[in-house]
Design brief:
Oligomer: heterodimer
Order of helices and strands of chain B: EEEHEEEHHHEHEHEEHHEEEEEEEEEE
Structural class of chain B: alpha+beta
Low-confidence stretches of chain A: none
Largest sheet of chain A: none
Mean pLDDT of chain A: 87
Radius of gyration of chain B: 25 Å
Strand content of chain A: under 5%
CATH topology of chain A: MetI-like fold
Shape of chain B: elongated
Number of domains of chain A: 1
Order of helices and strands of chain A: HHHHHHHHHHHHHH
CATH class of chain A: Mainly Alpha
Helix content of chain B: 10-25%
CATH architecture of chain A: Orthogonal Bundle
Number of strands of chain A: 0
Strand order of the largest sheet of chain B: 6-7-8-3-9-10
Largest interface: A-B, 21 and 24 residues
Mean pLDDT of chain B: 89
Chain lengths: 300, 368
């Protein structure tokens, strides 16, 4: 008990935590509160904020929620739905690609190769994400690398329209998020006790059965962490859909970015950003509950 | 004789290391068989080959008369109790025990009953819903045993399953395991590095060294008449005597000890050809050796003058390390409170006479 601890020592932990609280407060909580305030306001003609004339009336009439009600209009709901769908597909594709890759690095590759292979997974981070997304444009353009190669080999007669489609956006998203799925999966596959798989096989389970009954449940923390790490950024992505999706593919991220940069409607942009944050928090809550229900140590 | 497992000239190498070098063994149905040896002798590798978790480079493995070489583990009528138990941490005790039942074709509705039966065998009723991490080491060991037994294997393989238990618990479990094996009549193949454990539990055992079987047979035979120096040392009989053959007549071998004494031995190996002057080696177990005071008149035939080099008091027994004139050292053990208490008089540095009843001499196989 803290009865015998002198007062100075009792406050020491709080003092030590002060820098953290200060940083979080100034750089995270305060800006969020400012944005929350803005989201209840109205835009003026020049893209600034309209002064509040009658605070009482605005609150009572519910007019301060106008930006939030507007976000429920069908056109915005459609964008939200599209974003959600894209994020789900991205996450699923990443999981399907990353699991075998992580498994090979963790369990199949000889030990001295592991570092090299993990390095290859991380190397793309040395280049700016924007530049790497531009590189995808060069690959997918009508006169890009893929079309040139296909045309040259005579497999196709006229160039394929690869760019500015959902497929292009999906490719870009998967490419960008893949390492965030591979790394947590690798971490939990690396820790997996191989004798458990041998035990499953000894008890009559074939390769597939031992994979789904032992390997997958035991790497669940890695799967959950990877899903969260991929799903959340995919939900708010705007660079990829902007560059690879053209004007046709608008995602939640683009919508928000547009409100601030193009439409100059900060209040509406803030309201949308808050809704996205709420959606992300909801995902994290589901993640935490799922991990706890599985009775496991979370990896995140 | 009904053979449960037959190992026929099985070899396995890992890179440069020869883990098993043309090993042949027959394990009888319903017996408790131990694979005994120091770490790295190949005993665990052999067990994994029987389980199908690894495949031999050459040789054949038959289980119940059927060639299983090359078959995966789930196609073999054997189950394993792993060294660290390998319980599934994400499943309850009951789910662990019932894990393999569906592959045996046990209907879903009967799986719980099967699991309960197996848990009752190891006295773990009431623990069904616990997770492995909520159990003690001894309880986990029982769950691992129940999980393997629930599969009703023809042969149960146990890879040092008592290694992680403390000494007292270990001794209890040894007796329990032996009783369980007798009751169920299942063939047990038990891997251990502990000679006492293997003697306590097994019907027969094989002593392994450097990927080879040094000797296999009933416990008593291996303990009392070890065939090689390695087996003798591993069985706690480090007294290796060398002598020269004088002659052999009708199964009786006369040899000369380095100190000059003569000894007549029963030649247990009728096929062996002895030539005069040939060197032979034999052992005498430490508890069969006797120390006599230097001044006493020797009554028994072989007598070697020795100097006492060390004395260890162990409670139930006292051991002396004595050195003969030619530098060989021997271990002598006497139970405390045996007929004459004169043993205590042999102080370190004093002279004594080493002798024994020739009937307790065990001739070692000549190698090469």
């Amino acid at each position: 008990m803290s009865r015998d601890v002198p007062p100075a020592r009792r406050s020491a932990p709080w003092l030590l935590l002060a820098p953290t609280w200060l940083t979080l407060g100034l750089l995270l909580v305060l800006p969020l509160l400012l944005m929350l305030g803005i989201s209840f306001r109205e835009r003026d003609v020049y893209g600034g904020l309209k002064p509040i004339e009658d605070l009482g009336a605005t609150v009572v009439s519910g007019a301060f929620l106008a930006n939030y009600t507007r976000s429920l209009e069908p056109i915005y709901l459609a964008i939200a739905w599209r974003s959600l769908w894209m994020a789900v597909v991205t996450t699923a594709v990443c999981l399907v690609i990353a699991y075998p890759v992580a498994y090979c690095i963790a369990a199949v590759a000889p030990p001295r190769w592991k570092t090299v292979l993990l390095g290859l997974v991380v190397i793309p981070f040395w280049t700016s994400f924007l530049i790497r997304t531009y590189a995808w444009m060069f690959l997918l353009r009508t006169e890009g690398l893929i079309n040139t190669a296909l045309l040259g080999s005579g497999l196709i007669g006229k160039p394929l329209e690869l760019l500015y489609r959902d497929g292009a956006v999906l490719a870009g998203l998967v490419y960008g998020e893949l390492p965030f799925m591979i790394l947590p999966l690798y971490a939990s596959l690396e820790k997996l006790d191989r004798t458990l798989i041998e035990a499953a096989r000894d008890l009559g389970a074939g390769r597939l059965a031992s994979f789904f009954r032992v390997t997958v449940p035991l790497t669940f923390p890695g799967i959950a962490a990877g899903v969260v790490l991929v799903f959340i950024p995919s939900l708010g992505q705007f660079i990829v859909s902007d560059l690879l999706g053209g004007a046709k593919t608008m995602l939640a991220g683009n919508l928000i970015q547009n409100q601030f940069a193009v439409a100059r409607n900060k209040p509406f942009g803030s309201a949308l950003a808050f809704e996205l944050t709420a959606a992300v928090l909801l995902c994290l809550l589901v993640y935490a509950l799922a991990v706890r229900r599985a009775g496991r140590e979370p990896l995140l | 004789m009904d053979i449960a497992v037959e190992i026929d000239r099985v070899s396995r190498r890992f890179g440069e290391i020869v883990a098993l070098d043309s090993v042949s063994l027959s394990i009888r149905r319903g017996e408790f068989f131990s694979l005994l040896g120091p770490s790295g002798c190949g005993k665990s590798t052999l067990l994994r080959l029987i389980a199908g978790l690894d495949q031999p480079d050459s040789g054949t493995i038959r289980i119940g008369g059927q060639d299983v070489t090359g078959l995966p583990p789930f196609r073999r009528p054997v189950n394993m109790v792993f060294q660290d138990y390998a319980l599934f941490p994400h499943l309850s005790v009951e789910e662990n025990v019932a894990f393999g039942l569906r592959y045996k074709g046990v209907p879903r509705g009967e799986q719980a009953a099967h699991a309960a039966e197996a848990l009752a065998l190891v006295q773990l009723k009431g623990f069904e819903q616990r997770r492995p991490h909520e159990l003690s080491g001894g309880q986990r060991q029982r769950v691992a045993l129940a999980r393997a037994l629930a599969m009703r294997p023809q042969v149960l393989l146990l890879d040092e399953p008592l290694g992680a238990l403390d000494q007292r618990l270990r001794e209890d479990v040894q007796v329990e395991l032996k009783n369980l094996q007798k009751r169920l009549g299942i063939t047990f193949v038990f891997v251990t590095h502990d000679q006492e454990e293997s003697l306590t539990m097994s019907d027969r055992l094989a002593v392994m060294n450097r990927g080879r079987v040094e000797q296999s047979g009933p416990c008593r035979e291996i303990f009392e008449t070890p065939g090689t120096e390695f087996v003798a040392r591993f069985m706690g009989a480090p007294n290796i005597f060398t002598a020269r053959v004088r002659g052999a007549v009708e199964g009786v071998l006369s040899v000369t000890l380095p100190g000059g004494g003569d000894l007549r031995l029963a030649d247990g190996d009728p096929g062996a050809r002895w030539s005069a002057g040939q060197q032979v080696r034999f052992i005498v177990r430490p508890e069969r050796l006797e120390l006599l005071a230097d001044s006493s008149e020797p009554v028994k035939s072989p007598v070697i003058p020795v100097i006492v080099r060390d004395r260890v008091y162990r409670g139930v027994s006292t051991s002396w390390i004595v050195e003969a004139g030619h530098g060989d050292r021997f271990l002598v053990t006497r139970q405390s409170g045996s007929r004459d208490g004169s043993g205590e008089a042999f102080e370190v540095g004093s002279r004594a006479l080493l002798c024994w009843d020739p009937a307790h001499t065990v001739l070692l196989r000549t190698e090469g």
